[in-house]
């Protein structure tokens, strides 16, 4: 009798799993128009090339920056986008913030389209092409900033320039908000947010860099995925510090400061933060999981039962999926003695912690201290900021962005996701719950690997495609 009961329970369990998997079918994608958009491809590429030739490298030490190069880029804008300067007001705010206002037909909350025009430093000797010559070769435009993010800076202004030339006026105001210090967490974007706050401006929609149209990023999904970030992780740089009496290395105590820190490092790495299958991750699984193979659909349709599989894969393999699911800790720096034969009187190490929206700066620090379990190690935050709020997806603002992605890249599956990097858009969470992170490009894995790396470049056809996306989006504003 008990055997029949157990068999019945197993059959019922399997039936539930299979029925839920069979019902886990793709959701309707955003409504998309097939209206063509005509763009002067060569002119779009030429405008981006002119921006690339400006060496707008930002550094934490501003004394290393070349102000003339930033001024050069700003001085080019009226020539590159003349109609924008005829129809829009333009002002420069402190810390290289640029703000355009394109007046709309009627009163109402505006849209804000963002990008940054500063870039990270380069090791020129490791590049195949000069990073600031805007060389066109092999079907690509080469240069620092082509992907991050002068392509969207150009896409926004080139799109507006074309629409204004054609006599188009948006329904409501559109602001173009650009920062010249995003790569060093500069104050340009916060200054723009402060301007909006003091002038009572509440954006109906904010779009900044983030996801893109990518392939092979989700288990079992073979079609391109248009990923739109609806939140981004917070971050903490955490310092671990311990002291000792120092001394000669010939007569060490059982545990040196470096050894003590190494033990803490091992403990923390061996106890990852818990998985959170909710928020943006849950929405992504519920969207993309439906387009996966049967085995993966069975997992994503029944996370109540198989969530441990994702937890285990994340713990053992790490990578992007793991970063999506939990707060991550990456140890990046360690410092001890300046001499090889001297025990340091002080040793320290630093980890970069990326906070899942379910965690906070305080809760993460408390967990790290608890796992470290060493009263001789001082654990403090150097710099930190909380995870962003999670933006809505069941709303007109989301539909405008999602449908513009679907129209520009037909056949892709549009999905929310959690951005694991940081961007200037995190500052806008206090103004709007419709902040979306999408870099208007389709990127290969190789191209993604050049972001902040050597040989950054963009396929020529991707440049006007970015313009097309912003034209479609602006027409909906």
At a glance:
With 477 residues, the protein is of the alpha+beta class. Helix content is 38%, strand content 22%. β1 (89-93) and β2 (97-102) form a beta hairpin.
What are the defining features of this structure?
4-stranded antiparallel beta sheet, 15 helices, 22% strand, globular
What would your notes on this structure say?
The protein is α+β, with helices and mostly antiparallel strands. It is built from 15 helices and 17 strands. The protein has helices at residues 2-23, 41-52, 67-80, 82-87, 150-165, 188-198, 257-270, 279-288, 294-301, 303-317, 319-325, 361-372, 396-408, 445-449, 462-475; strands at residues 89-93, 97-102, 111-116, 136-137, 140-142, 174-179, 205-214, 225-232, 234-243, 247-248, 328-335, 342-343, 346-355, 378-385, 413-419, 435-443, 457-459. The strands form four sheets. Strands 1, 2, 3, 6, 7, 8, 15 and 16 form an eight-stranded mixed β-sheet that branches. A four-stranded antiparallel β-sheet has the order 11-13-9-14, covered by helices on one side. Strand 4 (136-137) and strand 5 (140-142) form a beta hairpin. Helix 2 crosses helix 5 (150-165) and helix 5 packs across helix 15 (462-475). The mean pLDDT is 94.
């Amino acid at each position: 009798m008990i055997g029949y009961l157990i068999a019945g329970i197993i059959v019922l369990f399997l039936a539930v799993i299979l029925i839920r998997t069979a019902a886990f079918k793709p959701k309707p994608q955003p409504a998309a128009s097939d209206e063509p958009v005509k763009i002067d491809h060569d002119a779009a590429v030429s405008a981006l090339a002119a921006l690339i030739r400006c060496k707008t490298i930002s550094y934490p030490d501003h004394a290393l920056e070349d102000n003339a190069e930033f001024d050069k880029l700003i001085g080019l804008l009226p020539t590159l986008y003349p109609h924008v300067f005829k129809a829009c007001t333009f002002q420069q705010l402190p810390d290289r913030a640029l703000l355009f206002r394109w007046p709309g037909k009627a009163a109402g909350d505006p849209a804000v389209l963002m990008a940054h025009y500063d870039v990270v430093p380069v090791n020129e000797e490791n590049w195949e092409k000069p990073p600031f010559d805007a060389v066109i070769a092999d079907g690509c435009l080469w240069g620092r900033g082509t992907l991050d993010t002068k392509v969207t800076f150009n896409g926004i202004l080139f799109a507006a320039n074309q629409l204004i030339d054609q006599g188009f006026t948006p329904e409501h105001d559109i602001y173009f908000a650009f920062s010249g210090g995003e790569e060093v967490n500069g104050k340009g974007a916060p200054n723009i947010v402060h301007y909006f706050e003091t002038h009572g401006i509440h954006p109906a929609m904010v779009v900044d860099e983030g996801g893109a149209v990518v392939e092979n990023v989700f288990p079992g999904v073979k079609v391109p995925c248009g990923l739109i970030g609806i939140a981004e992780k917070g971050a903490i740089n955490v310092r671990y510090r311990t002291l000792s009496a120092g001394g000669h290395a010939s007569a060490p105590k059982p545990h040196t400061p470096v050894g003590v820190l190494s033990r803490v490092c091992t403990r923390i790495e061996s106890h990852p933060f818990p998985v959170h299958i909710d928020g943006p991750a849950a929405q992504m699984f519920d969207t993309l999981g439906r387009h996966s193979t049967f085995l993966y659909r069975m997992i994503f349709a029944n996370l109540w039962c198989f969530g441990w599989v994702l937890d285990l894969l994340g713990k053992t393999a790490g990578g992007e999926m793991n970063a999506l699911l939990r707060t991550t800790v990456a140890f990046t720096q360690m410092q001890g003695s300046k001499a090889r034969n001297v025990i340091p009187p002080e040793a320290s190490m630093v980890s970069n912690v990326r906070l899942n929206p379910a965690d906070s700066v305080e809760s993460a620090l408390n967990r790290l201290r608890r796992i470290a379990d060493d009263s001789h190690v001082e654990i403090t935050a150097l710099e930190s900021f909380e995870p962003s709020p999670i933006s809505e997806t069941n709303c007109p603002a989301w539909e405008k962005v999602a449908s513009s992605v679907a129209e520009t890249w037909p056949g892709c599956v549009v999905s929310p996701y959690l951005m694991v990097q940081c961007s200037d858009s995190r500052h806008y969470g206090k103004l709007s719950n419709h902040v979306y992170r999408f870099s208007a490009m389709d990127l290969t894995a190789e191209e993604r690997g050049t972001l902040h790396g050597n040989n950054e470049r963009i396929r020529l056809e991707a440049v006007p495609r970015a313009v097309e996306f912003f034209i479609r989006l602006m027409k909906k504003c």
